[in-house]
UniProtKB/TrEMBL annotation:
This is 4-diphosphocytidyl-2-C-methyl-D-erythritol kinase. It comes from the Bacteria. The gene is ispE. Pathway: Isoprenoid biosynthesis; isopentenyl diphosphate biosynthesis via DXP pathway; isopentenyl diphosphate from 1-deoxy-D-xylulose 5-phosphate: step 3/6. InterPro entries: GHMP_kinase_C_dom, GHMP_kinase_C_sf, GHMP_kinase_N_dom, IspE, Ribosomal_Su5_D2-typ_SF, Ribsml_uS5_D2-typ_fold_subgr. GO terms for molecular function: 4-(cytidine 5'-diphospho)-2-C-methyl-D-erythritol kinase activity; ATP binding. ATP binds at residues 94-104. Catalyzes the phosphorylation of the position 2 hydroxy group of 4-diphosphocytidyl-2C-methyl-D-erythritol. It comes from Hymenobacter coccineus. Keywords: ATP-binding, Isoprene biosynthesis, Kinase, Nucleotide-binding, Transferase. It holds the Pfam family GHMP_kinases_C. The lineage of its organism: Bacteria, Pseudomonadati, Bacteroidota, Cytophagia, Cytophagales.
Amino acid sequence: MLTFPNAKLNLGLYVTARRPDGFHTLETVFVPLPWTDALELLPAAPGQPTSLGLSGRPIPGAPDTNLCVRAYALLQADFPQLPPAQLHLHKVVPIGAGLGGGSADAAFALKAANELFGLQLSTEALESYARRLGADCAFFIQNKPVLAREKGDVFEKISLDLAGTACAVVYPGLHISTVEAYARIVPQAPAHPLRAALGAPIETWRDTVANDFETALTPTYPVLAAIKQQLYAAGAAYASLSGSGSAVYGLWPGQFEAPALSWPAEYLVWRGQL
Ligand SMILES: C[C@@](CO)(OP(=O)(O)O)[C@H](O)COP(=O)(O)OP(=O)(O)OC[C@H]1O[C@@H](n2ccc(N)nc2=O)[C@H](O)[C@@H]1O
Ligand SMILES: Nc1ncnc2c1ncn2[C@@H]1O[C@H](COP(=O)(O)OP(=O)(O)O)[C@@H](O)[C@H]1O
């Protein structure tokens, strides 16, 4: 079975408290970004163990630490009838970019195994396996815009009309560790609660929708502010860091595509419609 795990963007991100377990509570909106890896899941050939083939962008770490292999192993622990699997991941979405690529691979591996081997797991059951793999991961099970709270894994419906919104994603190639990014934040309540702020026209978001990681990381990585400024100079109605970075996106509502931007291809990694 061939699947296409997509990236995500965060529209606003507030780190509201530190939890006793060291994690943080969040208020953020996740939206799918239609930019994908490719992940194939097949039963392994008879007598062969579970394996992972890789192509595309290099992923650090041994294959058994890869999130899609860990996702499959999690199911195997509860469903001993699952055979060894042959996985192949073609990595397109940059790692450590705040685009959730690894989390998407894990969630799509769970969904593919469920379908291919007829496990009949409900959406809720798949989400609870996903939560065990990473805070971001559960979002990719339903993979539609949601307001997320708690660790970023408890969801509320939100209606957002982003149809016909052009988007550009600029990735300066900095791999910012999520742990390091959280360590720089002093949690606080959002100045403008996200549901109300995102309900207003996109043009107003610049003054009301923020990402706490952007504020915390920009002094160390001034390139993030420079990219954002250039996106606004190119007419974006809204621009922001996604997640804990380092990808920065711009939005152009009502436009077929983002205007031509002057970054080289290795920086301007994606342009399209949300
Ligand atoms: C920051 C966010 C925002 O959407 O996204 P990314 O920038 O990674 O895409 C997420 O919270 C990233 O979620 P995810 O990448 O799944 O994190 P996990 O693997 O579960 O946790 C990695 C580490 O981040 C910290 N962490 C994560 C989630 C959370 N709510 N509080 C935390 O403090 C913890 O130190 C944890 O050990
Ligand atoms: N399939 C995978 N794709 C990307 N990263 C992976 C994968 N499996 C494990 N990882 C690890 O997960 C971390 C990055 O996860 P990712 O979700 O891409 O981050 P971010 O959301 O910050 O962009 C890295 O430490 C990387 O080595």
